[in-house]
Amino acid sequence: xxxxxxxxxxxxxxxxxxxxxxxxxxxxxxxxxxxxxxxxxxxxxxxxxxxxxxxxxxxxxxxxxxxxxxxxxxxxxxxxxxxxxxxxxxxxxxxxxxxxxxxxxxxxxxxxxxxxxxxxxxxxxxxxxxxxxxxxxxxxxxxxxxxxxxxxxxxxxxxxxxxxxxxxxxxxxxxxxxxxxxxxxxxxxxxxxxxxxxxxxxxxxxxxxxxxxxxxxxxxxxxxxxxxxxxxxxxxxxxxxxxxxxxxxxxxxxxxxxxxxxxxxxxxxxxxxxxxxxxxxxxxxxxxxxxxxxxxxxxxxxxxxxx
Length: 307
Hints:
CATH class: Alpha Beta
Low-confidence stretches: 1-17, 236-240
Pfam families: Glycos_transf_2
Number of helices: 11
CATH topology: Spore Coat Polysaccharide Biosynthesis Protein SpsA, Chain A
Mean pLDDT: 86
Number of strands: 10
Strand content: 15-25%
Distance between the termini: 39 Å
Shape: globular
Protein name: Glycosyltransferase family 2 protein
InterPro entries: Glyco_trans_2-like (IPR001173), Glycosyltransf_2 (IPR050834), Nucleotide-diphossugar_trans (IPR029044)
Number of domains: 1
Largest sheet: 10 strands, mixed
């Protein structure tokens, strides 16, 4: 271990000494009345119980807040509010700022956790203080929580187990998407988040962009089990604003090449460009799968996504 990495591990270990909850699950909330109750319930049902659940409402105008308040008797739940709606990246950043624990999980307001998600991931972080983050696989579900496809993300063998920054960064460039999973898959150290500068500027790359920053502060660990469920909801950010998302993706990948010229090689870029049609097809399939579950289009897209 290099002197720089040893110093980073020591810093994380000392600052991670618990004085409150062990884990903060933060949920940035905006207009998710239909789903937020199920999201909150999945967190409160964890077998690991030493956590706080922070829901930050971004000035929603639907019934989202009322759905969260239905769980107000649970002392682990804390509902916070923005006085006015702020951009997505600012809402995510403030949600993490409100966290009090050394380990943080950001969960989308329509996604779900399996009951053992925190227990399994905390155990890995406790066993290896040099880890900046862990991630797992996820299942795709529809509006009614029906599973569309299982075991998504971390499909490359070199993303499983303990990996260093170079491997992760190269795989991100080659994938041209989010090979590490969605926000709810990840558990990270707050110290690493602060040291890395928090979330990137691109809303589309919040998850993979943050992971790319976190691996500069410590190692990555990929888990082969599915511990979260990512919702393909009609009208969600996954199924809208495609052109803007592609532009942000390209800008993010260019930034990785600039920031890590000794890691990202020309062949990584070439392999990523060759894979671009596959990435585009996957995005289209996910958009179609978020459509009417009784339609032929939905059934065909769901069948392909299961491959």
